[in-house]
Amino acid sequence: xxxxxxxxxxxxxxxxxxxxxxxxxxxxxxxxxxxxxxxxxxxxxxxxxxxxxxxxxxxxxxxxxxxxxxxxxxxxxxxxxxxxxxxxxxxxxxxxxxxxxxxxxxxxxxxxxxxxxxxxxxxxxxxxxxxxxxxxxxxxxxxxxxxxxxxxxxxxxxxxxxxxxxxxxxxxxxxxxxxxxxxxxxxxxxxxxxxxxxxxxxxxxxxxxxxxxxxxxxxxxxxxxxxxxxxxxxxxxxxxxxxxxxxxxxxxxxxxxxxxxxxxxxxxxxxxxxxxxxxxxxxxxxxxxxxxxxxxxxxxxxxxxx
Length: 306
Hints:
The chain is built from eight helices and three strands. The chain has helices at residues 20-48, 51-79, 93-121, 128-159, 169-198, 203-230, 239-247, 281-288, and strands at residues 253-263, 266-275, 294-303. The protein has a three-stranded mixed β-sheet with strand order 1-2-3.
């Protein structure tokens, strides 16, 4: 006779992404590199008397802060992964950090646009040589950081056949912050070169406005996808239809279905089923667990009275 304890029927609620630890390590590396570059730019701005460098250093500080939020979210989610206070685990902490980062990106876009508009009407003197050198160094740091983070994104996408359920929005938020910084650096270099050799001072605010528009679009896209996960929107794709087709093969009917994402690469579902000849709920549950990314399933079965 086999006896079972309650623990034999329990399961964990750890819904972290496959590359969680790797992404956390590399995000902390990028935080450190960005912070060092930020201090260097602010110091250079004060030494050379360049407002452009000082402003870029302060601007980089906001990105360093956002990257720190992303890294802290990874650490918090890992540390509390088994904490029972979180009903469905800590897999969505990254979505919260990603949404927060999107808001910071949006604020940065507004500030860049505002500052650029002011400079269109009142150009400020620029020390071109020093500014170009420091911004070029910042661009190299940003491109290195972007490569480091984007390599993780590509690895996750390749490992899981580019499935959108595996997208780590926290990692993408960190990547977009670094990419936004790289974009503003490229545009700043182009504007500084145009001002240095052709006297086109108006180029600086114009490229600033263009950069603000691009960053605002990135912010909106990230806010939309991470926000959808936070409010438990039905994930994109055909998983819901696949669930219904799988359960309705033998004449049973799905009367209620809740499907949502609980972490990168993890979906959860609650299904209510009506049947003339119902089977044990675990039979249906095991069927659904065969669907890719389905990590947590609850099934309720009701006998049809008629």
